[in-house]
What does this fold into?
Amino acid sequence: MQHDRFHGRIAGQPRHCQAPGCPEPGEFRAPGEQRPGFDGPGDYRWFCLDHVRAFNAGYDYFSGMSQDEIVAAQNPVHGWERETRAFSPTAGIDGAPRWRDFADPLDAINQRYRARHPAQRSDGRAVTPEERRALEVLGLPLDANRTDLRSRYSQMVRKYHPDRNGGDRSYEQRLQEVVEAYQLLRKAAAFS
Ligand SMILES: [Zn+2]
It folds into this structure.
């Protein structure tokens, strides 16, 4: 088996491109149905260059993966994951954060996910990315109700307020975040 490390081509394979009706040899591999993980390296699908490009362009590699699976997929031993868009040298250019912008890869994954997806509560109401961040500030789950919101808010104000801490103002920044988070969520549709 011959690897071309610059293009990801693996020549000399007796495979055909898996794109329907394509007669070209399948010399480029893309992630398959079976994700890499603790059970093994995962499987691949094989395409010609044009079709692997089309596949990469339309495929969100992290879609449907748990955080553990995403972290496992970052393992360099799997090789091709490093070729994906999120890890490419140009990943930061279109405004998307690069992995090295984050101390913890999970922060990057969380942020990437939140930035794109409003969440849905079990009551069907949508929660915007800003509202999700506010819920995190207050340490509340996505399905918190208005009563939870009010009681957590008053609990955290008591905890961080200088009047309750012998005039200690070191929690001022935290208190400010709590107040802003509450102001945002109080007016949010999900809590009306
Ligand atoms: Zn093809």
